[in-house]
Write a structure and sequence with these properties.
Elements (H helix, E strand, L loop, with lengths): L6 E2 L2 E2 L7 E3 L10 E10 L6 H16 L3 E6 L3 E8 L1 H13 L3 E12 L8 E5 L6 H5 L6 H12 L2 E2 L1
Length: 160
């Protein structure tokens, strides 16, 4: 999987390191779950309604595609866990990576696991300010450690 790098017009794209977690059991299990966790920043100058538009679209489209997970916003950053079929989740991540409403997209986790999805349904909401931004600056929070940190944030979030 690759995402944009370099610069295009007025919008800058950053290189995303693909952190792939391989679970050997998952590779042979028909019920394997593909999981992506990322954090992005709301594009500067975005209107207030941008966040509600993103949430409304996620609430409608993700369940239709069999994608579970959670989207939270802390006033500046989005954090999103996407779980489901690899093709569906990867296609959604490609759209997010090129969406002008998201900047500084940082991929924290990507891979297949035999473990059941962490989220049984799609949820969204808000969390304490600056909790998600910390995930982008702490290099140790990648892979499973990032997932555990995100789940901790979700535990204190106002989710619907």
């Amino acid at each position: 999987m690759s995402f944009y790098t370099g610069e295009t017009g007025p919008r800058r794209y950053i290189a995303l390191r693909h952190i792939r977690v391989q679970d050997p059991i998952a590779m042979t299990t028909p019920d394997a779950t593909f999981r992506i966790l990322y954090v992005s920043q709301l594009a500067p100058g975005s209107e207030l309604g941008t966040v509600s538009d993103i949430v409304a679209t996620s609430r409608t489209n993700n369940p239709l595609r069999g994608i579970t997970g959670a989207l939270v916003f802390d006033g500046e950053y989005f954090g999103q866990l996407l779980e489901g079929d690899e093709a569906e989740v990867s296609a959604l991540m490609q759209r997010i990576a090129t969406d002008p409403r998201h900047v500084r997209v940082v991929l924290l986790l990507s891979g297949v696991t035999a473990v059941r999805p962490r989220m049984r349904v799609w949820r969204s909401g808000y969390c304490d300010p600056q909790r998600l931004g910390a995930l982008t600056t702490e290099p140790a929070l990648r892979g499973p450690a990032a997932l555990e940190a995100f789940m901790s944030i979700l535990a204190g979030a106002d989710l619907e």
